[in-house]
């Protein structure tokens, strides 16, 4: 079997572990899919407070790191393609976990972590661009869209080759698909808009 597919499959297994479910259950005693919504950092932070969002973020980063380490061991080499393919698998697993009825998160933390591990310049460049887009627009989804576009664009501009560019473009498409409802809400003027970091702070203060 193609080792790249094995890396994707292994990454999928890691990615399908949803940190938010553990955090929500520990804090509220409820199963996340009962009514809590998207198992991501922003949703958990806005509902339970910033500290819980940070825990979810750290868990999602950790599972992606572990997946990428395994990918690098399975597919070693200076090109670091094992990192890239395992990271892509983690994004898919986080977004569509089979054991959760294919209802997962939106994949930003996993995609960003994998990109940084593959190439710090590409990953950090995309994340900084995404953060800037959030600060300018006030919409998290716009920042996610910026990351989705910047990942393959920076890979192409850096001369990383067509294979990394294609994988990062595929990850970007996944991110855009997972945010499609947010884009529709933005177009209809229904998406929450504001200074996200102040919003999280205020929510954290209310839940402390």
Q: What string gives the helices and strands in order?
A: HHHHHHHHHHHH
Count of separate DSSP helical elements: 12
Kindly report the oligomeric state of this protein: single chain
Largest sheet: none
> Roughly how many Å is the radius of gyration?
17 Å
What would you say this structure looks like, in words?
The protein is mainly alpha-helical and 208 residues long. The protein has 12 helices and no strands. It has helices at residues 3-15, 19-28, 32-35, 41-48, 50-74, 81-95, 108-118, 120-137, 140-157, 162-178, 180-187, 196-207. It is globular and about 45 Å long. It starts with a helix and ends with a helix. The model is unreliable at 197-208 (pLDDT under 50).
Keyword list:
208 residues, mainly alpha, globular, disordered C terminus
How would you summarize the topology of this molecule?
Layout: H1 3-15, H2 19-28, H3 32-35, H4 41-48, H5 50-74, H6 81-95, H7 108-118, H8 120-137, H9 140-157, H10 162-178, H11 180-187, H12 196-207
Provide a concise account of the structure shown.
The chain is an all-alpha fold.
């Amino acid at each position: 079997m193609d080792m790249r597919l094995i890396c994707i499959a292994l990454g999928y297994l890691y990615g399908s572990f949803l940190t938010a479910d553990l955090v929500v259950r520990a804090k509220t005693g409820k199963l996340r899919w009962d009514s809590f919504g998207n198992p991501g950092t922003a949703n958990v932070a806005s509902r339970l407070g910033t500290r819980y969002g940070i825990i979810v973020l750290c868990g999602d980063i950790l599972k992606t790191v572990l997946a990428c380490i395994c990918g690098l061991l399975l597919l070693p080499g200076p090109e670091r393609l094992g990192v890239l393919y395992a990271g892509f698998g983690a994004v898919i697993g986080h977004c569509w976990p089979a054991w959760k009825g294919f209802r997962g998160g939106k994949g930003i933390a996993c995609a960003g972590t994998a990109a940084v591990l593959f190439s710090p310049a590409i990953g950090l460049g995309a994340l900084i661009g995404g953060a800037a887009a959030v600060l300018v627009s006030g919409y998290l989804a716009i920042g996610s869209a910026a990351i989705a576009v910047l990942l393959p664009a920076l890979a192409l501009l850096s001369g990383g080759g067509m294979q990394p560019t294609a994988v990062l473009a595929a990850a970007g498409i996944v991110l855009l698909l997972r945010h499609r409802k947010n884009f529709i809400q933005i177009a209809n003027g229904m998406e929450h808009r504001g200074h996200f970091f102040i919003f999280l702070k205020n929510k954290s203060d209310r839940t402390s």
